[in-house]
Amino acid sequence: MNTPRTAGSRQPEAGSRFLHPLRWAQARIDAWVLARVKRQPGPVVIGRGRVYILPTRFGYGFGLMLVVMLLGAMNYSNSMIFLLTFLLAGIGLVCMHHTHANLANLQLRIGDAAPAFVGEIAHFEVLVDNPAARPRWSLGLSWPKAEPQATYADLPARESRRLRLSLPASTRGWLPARVFSLHSDYPLGLFHAWTWAELDMACLVFPQPAAAGISPPGSNGHGGYASSARSGQDEFAGLRNYQRGDALRSVHWKSLPKLQAPMVKQFAETLEQELWLDWDALAPLDAETRLSQLTRWVLDAEAEQRSYGLKMPGLQLPPSRGAAHQFHCLKILALHPQTSGAA
Amino acid sequence: MNDYLPRTTLLRLLVVLTLVLLPHALQLPLWESLLIAALIVWRGLSATRQWRAPPKALRVTLTLATFVGVYLSYTRVSGQAAGTALLCVMAALKLLELRARRDVMVMVFLMYFLLVTHFLVSQELWTAGYLLFSTVCITALLIECQHLGALPPRQTLRTSVTIVAQALPLMLVIFVLFPRIPGPLWGIPANAGASAGRSGLSDQMAPGDITELIRSEDIAFRVEFDGAVPEPGARYWRGPVLDRFDGRTWRRSMPPQQTAAPAIEFSGTAIDYTLTLEPHRRSWLFALEMPARIGFPTGAVLGRDGELLASKPLNERLQYSLRSYPEYRFETTLGERELQRGLQLPAGYNPRTIAHAMAWRAQGLNPAQRVDAALRWFNQENFAYTLRPSVLGRDSIDDFLFNTRRGFCEHYASAFTVLMRAAGVPARVVAGYQGGVRNDIGAYYVVRQSDAHAWSEVWLEGRGWVRVDPTAAISPSRIESGLEAALDASEGLPGHLSARTRLRFYLETRWDWVNMQWNGWVLGYGPELQQAFLARFGITDLRGMLLALTVIGTALLSLVGLLLLRQFAPARVNDPILRAWHRLGDKLRKQGFTQRTDEGPRDFIARVGAARPEWAAAIDRVLLLYLQQRYLQAPDPGVVQALSDAIRQLELRR
Q1: Is the pLDDT of residue B484 over 50?
Q2: Which stretch of DSSP H or E encloses residue B73?
Q3: A137–B139 C-beta distance less than 8 A
Q4: What does the pLDDT look like over B418-435, one tens digit per residue?
Q5: E strand or H helix at B318
Q6: Residue B488: pLDDT over 60
Q7: Is it the case that residue B503 has pLDDT exceeding 50?
Q8: Which chain A residues contact residue B569 at CB under 8 A?
């Protein structure tokens, strides 16, 4: 149960059909249902018909315990044991409805999905709304069959919470979120209720930045890491907030304990340079390597607060800088067609 | 999932565990109670002071040691008492390796099971309340386990109470309708039944046996008279008949199989009554002297000695209706074997007693006169009726009659019977109960263990077996006893009532009445009562029971489900403007337009308008009204109505 499984690996193995007929049957049913989950823009309302429920391991254990108690009650002709056994049985049955109701009528909406680089973990946010006047407890969000990795939240009455799904970003481009599961064992952990939904959300995955080393051509000898040595002599211009991709050596460590957020040193001199990051300049390399290298240059140039432009086949971004420009450049790199540009 | 166990949850677990184990503490050996207490305290301290977990070797050693300890205490590790003891200590030992929330789930199941074992010992009403409370607490703990981080106890307890309250009607329905089969399934339990293993009349009587019994306030049986109630002095509840004497102890001589129906002639007025006998794990039943052969419970017979015998030891509470006649002639003719049985005395015991009785015979007294002589002797000499008799030597009757002269009913019955036998009058000891106190609320009589009594029966020519109660002969000297509360009310002892105040007596009667209902309807709800009860509703067979169980159970469960769905349904939006806007949203969604999270009303309507110009005019008007009413002005009911109407009349077609 605890081994992490990706959303795709839910096909039953061939031999398990006879070894674990129940598990096999359930896997078949799950696959059937999963294949029929519609991808929707949201909001998705979880009707009570879409909440599935099965006993957990503890639920089966509880049932077994009740059977033993019942046998004891019969053997000793003990009315009190009968009473307690039936009370516990009643608790179990009522708990099933509570667990089911804990999920019913929730609403799922698409939340943020911050871009990630290849090799990082992409996070999808799902907004869960509770329109009811009753709080919901211990709602977990995970990929199907990967409940141990779920993130949990409680949902007060008439409120919303963000829950997060994580998926390793392995290829650049749009990474679509697949079917996910919202589930809960609350209140007694005897039953596991879940629903499957697929929201039309995707996360942009930038190419993996190449290792530092090659400096961009045509940067007047000031590009890449040559400039960093020089930047130390520049006039210190101030601090700005850390952005992803900033070089570690530019972080102002001294202020970290005080401000609780990392700051980056800025130098006035570096702002003057203009840089062209050119696809064709990396001609001998293959397409993915070129994209990686360009990503690295975009990040470095932004970190050094230089103006940079991007030249791609059939596309040219004029030099600029700032978060929006950087995003624009990285998006172009991320969505660069897979097949073209192979050397 | 993160399986970390919060410290507060652990401490709460310890509290609940203590609550569950507390009633068991009285039953367990002292060393075990102390060990469990130590383990609980250690676990609590180790959590707050962050001590290290004990090494595995220590845990294993401790576990094995407790196994040995339980074996030494009970000479076994299975069975009811030993099994319970083992379960208790294992639950406590589990604390040593309690780390994750998963372990708490296992503990919770263990605790539910411990509750069950408690019912094997006690089934009184208060236990039920205590255990219901425990169930709520355990369930609250289980709820807390389903949440990352501790929850406030108010919230878990409220949820737990809700769930238990919703489960109670289900419990009741299943309890009533679940088909009962007569137990036991696998052999008779070691000491099942409510008052099992505790006091009760046994099939033998040595000096001091009944004196012990008399201290118990436990109820032996309850009687409801149908019509006339006999005088207290005439209420002799006949139990086992003891006719074999070995010099010290009286025993029953006849195995139940050899019994044959006795010849009894009844006369006078009949007394009808219903008796509810607590399980005492013996095969005899009690009846007012002398029961006619009417209404015996299934399998019961009247033995040769006038004992009412059930077919097997009584493990369940039994209710039966009988008819008795206080006037009777019992076995007017006696065979030679029976005669010898009634005269048997062990050789070489109690020579002085025998000599004393022989003297009456030598004086030429007839049997009836010999009886009178003995009673007169008891009455006139300084015999004392006391709950603190002196210790008797080998010739116990000699010792009693000529030295100590301090005894309780069993001493007198025993001595009198020996005297009679020595004097040539067939005699035997009858054990049973005498008297009983009326419960005014339920109009029934309660006979307690403290009403236990022993008397004699002598056989007289032409009259048969006649009851003689030698205790009655020495009644004036009873006052000596300091334990009035334990003494028999019918014997006219004023101390019996004075020890209890009027209020206490009143409360006790009430409480007993409640208990009787509880016993009758809940504890006594076995196969017979179930059949009788369900027959009233026309359910007579197994199929009917299962059908009713399924139908009513499902209906109740669906009711709970519906209630919950209502509670968890989207709450109604109170603002009519917002409600109208939501309705528009629904209409547009059907046409494929959904307001995005990053879109305000204006942007959304603009987007829809751009895509479907034919709607633009209508939805723009609605937008305008909505924005005006919701954000710009104080809402005007008329305009709100107009907005609502406009949205309702909006016709969106593809």
Answers
A1: no
A2: helix B56-74
A3: no
A4: 999 999 999 999 999 888
A5: strand B318-324
A6: no
A7: yes
A8: 105, 132
Contact at CB, B570 and A79, closer than 8 angstroms: no
Minimal Cα distance from A137: which residue of B? B147
Query: Which of B557, B351, B391, B195 lies closest to A92, judged by CA?
Result: B557
Instruction: Give how far B191 is from chain A: nearest CA, Å.
Output: 10
Predicted TM-score (pTM) of this structure: 0.72
Can you tell me the ipTM of this complex?
Answer: 0.77
What are the structure tokens assigned to B446, written together?
A: 């309660």
The yes-or-no verdict on residue B507 having pLDDT over 60 is yes
Active site residue B469: yes
In this complex, the residue of B116, B142, B168 whose CB is nearest that of residue A90 is B168
Confidence of residue A3 (pLDDT cuts 50, 70, 90): very low
* Catalytic position from the list B305, B398, B469, B512: B469
pLDDT tens digits along A238-286: 777 777 767 777 788 888 888 777 887 766 554 456 788 888 888 788 8
Cβ distance of A132 and B568 shorter than 8 Å: yes
Q: Worst-scoring range by mean pLDDT, B227-231, B287-291, B495-499?
A: B495-499
Specify the pLDDT at position A273.
60
Tens digit of each residue's pLDDT (9 = 90 or more) over A80-100? 899 999 999 999 999 999 999
Contact pairs from chain A to chain B, CB under 8 Å: 178
Q: Would you call B409 a catalytic residue per the annotation?
A: yes
Q: Which of A224-228, B107-111, B196-200 has the highest mean pLDDT?
A: B107-111
Q: Across the interface, which of B119, B184, B571 has its CB nearest the CB of A131?
A: B571
- Measure CB to CB from residue B315 to each of A77, A94, A187 and give the nearest one: A77
Angle (CA) A104 A108 A112, round 5°: 155
Q: Using an 8 Å Cβ cutoff, are A269 and A237 in contact?
A: no
Contact B557 A93 (CB under 8 A): yes
Can you tell me the distance from the alpha carbon of B24 to that of B198, in angstroms, rounded to the nearest whole number? Answer: 16
Is A315 buried (19+), middle (13-18) or exposed (0-12) by CB count in 10 A? exposed
Please state the rounded mean pLDDT for residues B470-486. 49
Is B372 considered catalytic here?
A: no
Do B159 and A187 lie within an 8 Å CB cutoff?
A: yes
Which of B120, B123, B185 has the CB atom closest to A74's CB atom?
B185
Give the DSSP letter of residue B345: -
Q: What is the pLDDT of residues B295-306, one digit of tens each?
A: 788 778 888 788
Which of B105, B135, B168 lies at the smallest CB-CB distance from A189? B105
Check CB contact under 8 Å for B167 and A91. Answer: yes
Q: Residues of B with CB below 8 A from A82's CB?
A: 175, 178
Token digits of residue B362: 């030598």
Between chains, do B170 and A76 touch, taking CB under 8 Å as contact?
no
The CA distance from B56 to B65, in Å, is 14
3-state helix/strand/coil string of chain A: CCCCCCCCCCCCCCCHHHHCHHHHHHHHHHHHHHHCCCEECCCEECCHHHCEEEECHHHHHHHHHHHHHHHHHHHHCCHHHHHHHHHHHHHHHHHHHHHHHHHCCCEEEECCCCCEECCCEEEEEEEEECCECCCEEEEEEECCCCHHHCEEEEECCCCEEEEEEEEECCCCEEEECCCEEEEECCCCCCEEEEEEEEECCEEEEECCCCCCCCCCCCCCCCCCCHHHHHHCCCCEEEEEECCCCCCHHHECHHHHHHHCCCEEEEECHHHHCEEEEECHHHCCCCHHHHHHHHHHHHHHHHHCCCEEEEEECCEEEEEECCHHHHHHHHHHHHCCCCCCCCC
B112 and A132 within 8 Å at the Cβ level: the answer is no
Q: Which of A174-178, B247-251, B374-378, B522-526 has the lowest mean pLDDT?
A: B522-526
**Nearest chain A CA: its distance from B64 CA (Å):** 25
Place of tokens 């166990």: B5
Q: Out of B453, B488, B496, B512, which one is annotated catalytic?
A: B453
